[in-house]
Design goal:
The protein is mainly alpha-helical. The protein is 71% helix and 0% strand. It is built from three helices and no strands. Helix 1 packs antiparallel against helix 2, helix 1 runs parallel beside helix 3 and helix 2 packs antiparallel against helix 3. The longest helix has 25 residues. The chain is elongated. It starts with 11 loop residues before the first helix and ends in a 7-residue tail after the last helix.
């Protein structure tokens, strides 16, 4: 009789945190081009959550955090140049 192998437990918490780190990076990068008022804060929140959960992709999470903040700084700079609350091309 053959013994069945014990089921391997997946580390979903770390995998979720890794996914959040990658998502924050991608959203932060896209936010520099379009919809930075929405994508910037989302990138910051996802990066902070990924770092808090202990992601193995710390570099990507930190980059997502920096890009999210840069999104908001670009928005503020463009709003100041345009003298409006929003900006357009």
């Amino acid at each position: 009789m053959e013994l069945a192998a014990a089921p391997q437990r997946r580390r979903t918490g770390t995998q979720d945190a890794d996914g959040m780190a990658v998502a924050s990076f991608v959203l932060g990068l896209l936010g520099l081009l379009v919809l930075n008022v929405f994508l910037g804060p989302i990138a910051v929140v996802l990066a902070a959550a990924a770092l808090w959960r202990g992601t193995t992709r710390r570099g990507r999470a930190c980059l997502g955090l920096v890009l999210g903040v840069a999104d908001l700084l670009v928005l503020v700079a463009l709003m100041q140049l345009d003298n409006t609350v929003s900006w357009s091309f």
